[in-house]
Specification:
Blueprint lengths: L2 H17 L4 H5 L55 H4 L34 H13 L22 H10 L2 H11 L23 E5 L6 H4 L1 H7 L8 H8 L6 H15 L1 E8 L3 E8 L1 H4 L4 H9 L24 E10 L6 E6 L9 E4 L3 E13 L2 E12 L2 E13 L6 H8 L1
Antiparallel strand pairs: 1-2, 1-9, 2-3, 3-4, 4-5, 5-7, 6-7, 7-8, 8-9
Helix pairs in contact: 1-8
Length: 419
């Protein structure tokens, strides 16, 4: 039974390519001005200036939370009844979200975390404390405000990540919107926009990409097969008709785990309190091996690759070299989902590779990510692709990614914790 979606997906994508982006009429219809001026995404990447995206999120925004008072909600001054997200109970432990010290991990006793030295990078913990002190009413919780069930002082913080992975997409949307503010930056560098290019070793973010549902995944086939006119055709309707046990989450989970092991193993962040730079860890089975840095430095010198330097940190001295690639910018800005503040990533720069993919006269795509912090070192993130073909744009596959920035667990340790 679960083989059917995979087979259908492959057939539909092949047919889509034949009927859509490979359609000569679509190429001929490409308007001359689509890349005029600053182009579809705006000026070249600048720190703190997000690209212009197709501003129609794939899921309608939920009701906006009511802004809390400066000190946060209290028993004497609780949220108004119309704030449905504050009064919801994401983890079904009988404690409403606004007063739950573990937002996603059931703990009806609300036992506080047993104080100890925080786990993870010191600057991540420091930025967390500083941001919470400046935003005491925020839904984000610092390590000192958590319950023992999701404590950041031991491995229990991974329970939050596992709970987030196990949620249905509709609830993940609600979690993101309930948080309402970006939360702290993850740290990794005291001066990330210097010419070093970034002093410091960076902080590793472990993450497991997840599909949304077959209906959303198959929207791409509909969009391409309709010559970029309609993402909600027969393929996505077929995906919506599948039984929950056939959903792409459990079906593709082994695929995502294999990809994490051999293709992509998270991100490394170089940020101060305002943002900075970010890289991806591609092909970890190769690039994370001792001694790969000399090969990365050699690749940087290949004619044709010198300008983009695919391994921008391979040349760093002092034992801080690494073979990570695809460097982008990370900063705060308005969320595509609800217009309120989030941590945004622009993969076009400053030395992105290969952030922007263009097929001249046919199509182009830009990846976009945004995050909000749930608790110290644990983030709710979403990733999508802003696709362009002819005059049509489509923000596709807005899928969830949990980030964990609490030291550097191995891939096996991360996967075992979230299974």
């Amino acid at each position: 039974m679960v083989r059917c979606p995979k087979a259908v997906l492959g057939v539909l994508l092949v047919c889509a390519a034949a009927a859509g982006l490979c359609d000569p009429s679509l190429a001929a219809a490409q308007p001359a001005n689509i890349w005029a001026g600053d182009g579809p995404w705006g000026p070249p990447p600048r720190f703190g200036v997000p690209p212009r995206l197709a501003m129609t999120p794939p899921t309608p925004p939920l009701g906006d939370p009511v802004p809390p008072p400066p000190g946060g909600w209290t028993a004497a001054n609780p949220p108004p009844a119309q704030d449905a997200l504050a009064w919801a109970d994401f983890d079904h432990d009988g404690v409403q979200n606004w007063r739950d010290n573990c937002l996603l991990v059931p703990n009806p006793d609300q036992a506080p975390a047993r104080a100890a030295a925080p786990i993870g990078p010191a600057d991540t913990a420091a930025l967390s404390r500083q941001w919470k002190a400046a935003h005491p009413g925020a839904a984000f919780r610092d390590d000192a405000q958590l319950g023992q069930a999701c404590s950041g002082y031991d491995g229990n913080y991974m329970r939050t990540t596992k709970a987030y992975i196990d949620l249905p997409d509709s609830v993940r949307w609600q979690v993101f919107q309930y948080l309402g503010q970006s939360g702290p930056m993850p740290g990794g560098s005291p001066a990330p926009m210097s010419t070093d290019p970034s002093p410091g070793t960076g902080n590793l973010a472990m993450t497991l990409p997840m599909c949304t549902d077959w209906a959303a995944e198959l929207q791409l086939a509909d969009w391409l097969s309709s010559a970029a006119r309609d993402p909600n055709g027969a393929a996505s309707r077929f995906g919506a008709s599948l039984a929950p046990q056939q959903d792409c989450g459990p079906t593709l989970r082994p695929v995502w785990e294999a990809l994490m092991r051999y293709y992509w193993a998270g991100k490394r962040l170089y940020t101060d309190r305002d943002g900075g730079r970010i890289t991806n860890q591609f092909f970890p089975a190769l690039t994370q091996q001792p001694g790969f840095e000399p090969l990365a430095r050699l690749i940087n010198q290949i004619p044709g690759l010198q300008a983009i330097r695919p391994f921008p940190y391979a040349d760093r001295p002092g034992g801080q070299a690494n073979a990570e690639t695809r460097e982008g910018l990370i900063f705060r800005g308005p969320s595509v989902i609800d217009g309120r503040e989030a941590i945004l990533m622009d993969w076009r720069g400053p030395q992105a590779f290969p952030a922007q993919v263009q097929i001249p006269g046919v199509a182009a795509a830009l990846q976009t990510d945004e995050c909000r912090a749930i608790q110290t070192g644990v983030y709710s993130c979403w990733a999508g692709m802003d696709l362009i073909a002819g005059q049509q744009r489509f923000l596709w596959k807005w899928s969830a990614m949990p980030w964990v920035i609490k030291g550097q667990p191995s891939i096996d340790e991360f996967l075992n914790a979230v299974r």
